[in-house]
Amino acid sequence: MHHPHPLPDAVAPIFEEVIRRNPGESEFHQAVREVLESLGPVVAKHPEYADSAIIRRLCEPERQIIFRVPWTDDSGRVQLNRGFRVEFNSALGPFKGGLRFHPSVYLGIVKFLGFEQIFKNSLTGLPIGGGKGGSDFDPKGRSNGEVMRFTQSFMTELYRHIGEYTDVPAGDIGVGSREIGYMFGQYKRITNRYESGVLTGKGLTWGGSQVRTEATGYGTVFFVQEMLAATGGSFAGRRVVVSGSGNVARYAIEKVHELGGTVVACSDSGGYVWDEAGIDLPLLAQIKSGPGGRVADYAAAKGGAVRHISDGSIWDVTCDVALPCATQNELDAEGAAALIRGGCTIVAEGANMPTTPGAIRALREAGVRFAPGKAVNAGGVATSALEMQQNASRDSWSFEHTEERLQEIMRQIHDRCLETADEYGAPGDYVAGANIAGFTRVADAMLALGLV
Ligand code: NDP
Question: What are the C-alpha distances in Å from 32 to residues 14, 39, 96, 319?
Fold first, then answer.
C-alpha cells in the first residue's frame, strides 16, 4: 500500500518491527500504521512510554490461539475450518471483542480487529481489554443444523480460553444472537456453569441486554449527531448513504430516520439499492432475515423507481453523510472522490477500517469531516460492557435507560476525541483524537501494572 506520509521518527522502527514479525498480514499493518501516525506528539510529550517500550508491547498480542474446527455437514461429509482467538491486551479489563465467521478470516484480519479493539474499548472509558476472534467458516448457504454443529465444535475448543474474568467474546460479521446462543449453550454444557458474563450479545430471555442488538448502529448515528451538533447542525433533512445491510447498517438506518434524515441507499456484497423515498426498513429487515435474503430482492419487491445496481459503487449516490457499515477497505480513493464530487461533508465509519488510507487522505484534504470506526462504532462494545454489568449484578435494565446510557457514552467519546485533538495541537481531527485518547488510557494502565 502506498504511503506518501512518512511515520514520525520515534515510531518508524516499531512499524518496521511489526512488519518483520507479522509477514503478509496487510490489514494488521494498516491498522497499526494508522495508530502510529497519530502518536508522534504523544511520544514527544511522554518519554516514559518509550522507556517502557509501551508501543512495542502494545503491537504484540498477549496471546494468540489458533485451532482446528472439524464438523460434519448435512450430507455426512467431514468439513474442516480454522478457529482464532487473539487476546491482544488486558491492561484495562478482560479481553473483549467479537467473533467473525467469514471465508476471508485469517490471522491478519483477526489481529487488525483485535488491535483496533484495544483503543476502541479504552475510549469507551469502561473496564474492558481488547481481543478478537473468529473462523474462515462461511455461513452462507449453510443450514441451521450445520451452523449449530460448526459453532458447537468451535466452542468445544474455545471454552478453555474464555471466562467472565478472562476473555468475553461477542458477535461480528456472520455471528448474531443465534450463533451466540449455540455457543453459550455449549459453554454451559461443558463447564456446568451458568456463567452469563462469558459472552455478550445474548438473547433477552437468557441474560442479554436491551439495546445490544441495536447498539452499534444506533451508537454510530448518535456519534454523527454530535458531529453535526458541533457545527450547529442536525440530521433533519439530510441525505445519508449507508453501506451494508447487516446488523450495524440496519439499526443505523433506523436511527437516521428517527432523527429526521433519509437513507437513500444501502448494499450487500451483491450490489446496492437506491431508493429516493428512503429505505423501507421493515421490508429490508423482512428480506434480509429470510434465508439468503439479498438487497436485490428489495428492489424487485419495490419495483418502480427503486434500482438495484450490481456493478457500480454505492459512493456514487450523492449524499450529505456517508456511513460505511459493511466491511474493511470498502471505501477506496475512487469512492472518496465520488463522495467529494457529490458534496458529502461527513464520513463516519460504522464498520471497522472500511476506509482505505488513500480515501481518508483524499477526504481530509477536501475538508470532509472524517471519524474513525474505533470511536464511531464503539457503542456496540460499550453496550456489551453494560450487558456484563447487568450479568454481574443479576439485573436487567429497561430499553430507555440502556439507550440513554449508550447515548451518553457516545457523547463522551465524541467529546474526548475533540478535547484530545485540541490538547495535542490537531483541532477537529477525530483520527488523532481517537488514537491518542485511546492510547494514553491503556498506556498509563500498562505502566502502572509493571513489565507483564
Ligand atoms: P453482518 O454480518 O450483520 O453484516 C455485514 C454486512 O456487510 C452484510 O450486508 C454483508 O453483505 C456486508 N459484507 C460483509 N463482508 C463483505 C465483503 N467482503 N464485501 C462486501 N460486503 C460485505 O455484520 P455486522 O453488521 O455486525 O458488521 C459490519 C461491520 O461493523 C464489520 O466491519 C464489523 O467488524 C463492524 N462492527 C460490528 C459490531 C457489531 O456489534 N456487530 C461492533 C463494531 C463494529 P453480504 O450479506 O452480502 O455478505
Answer: 10, 11, 19, 31
Q: What is the pTM of this model?
A: 0.97
Say whether both 176 and 233 belong to one domain: no
Number of domains in the chain: 2
Determine the distance separating the centroid of ligand 1 and the alpha carbon of 246, expressed in angstroms: 6
Atom of ligand 1 nearest to the CA of 244: 9
From 31, 57, 214, 204, select the one nearest 132 (Cα to Cα).
31
Same domain, 67 and 155: yes
* Domain match, 242 and 133 both: no
Ligand 1 lined by 352 (C-beta under 6 Å): yes
The domain spanning residue 114 has which CATH number?
A: 3.40.50.10860
User: From ligand 1's centre to the CA of 269, what distance in Å?
Assistant: 10
Ligand 1 centre distance from Cα of residue 122 (Å): 22
pLDDT digits (tens, 9 = 90+) for 102-150: 999 999 999 999 999 999 999 999 999 999 999 999 999 999 999 999 9
Active-site annotation holds for 132: yes
Whether residue 173 has its Cβ less than 6 Å from ligand 1: yes
421, part of any domain? no
> What is the three-class DSSP state of 357?
helix
Of 349, 367, 385, the last residue of a domain is 367
In angstroms, the CA 195 to CA 161 distance is 14
Residue 95: which H helix or E strand, with range?
A: strand 95-101
Residue that is last in its domain, among 332, 367, 402 = 367
377 lines ligand 1 (CB under 6 A): yes
Host domain of residue 310: 215-367
Task: Supply the DSSP string of 272-301, one letter for each residue.
Answer: EEE-TT---HHHHHHHHHSTT--HHHHHHH
Ligand 1 atom 4 nearest Cα: 246
Q: Which atom of ligand 1 is nearest to the CA of 201?
A: 40
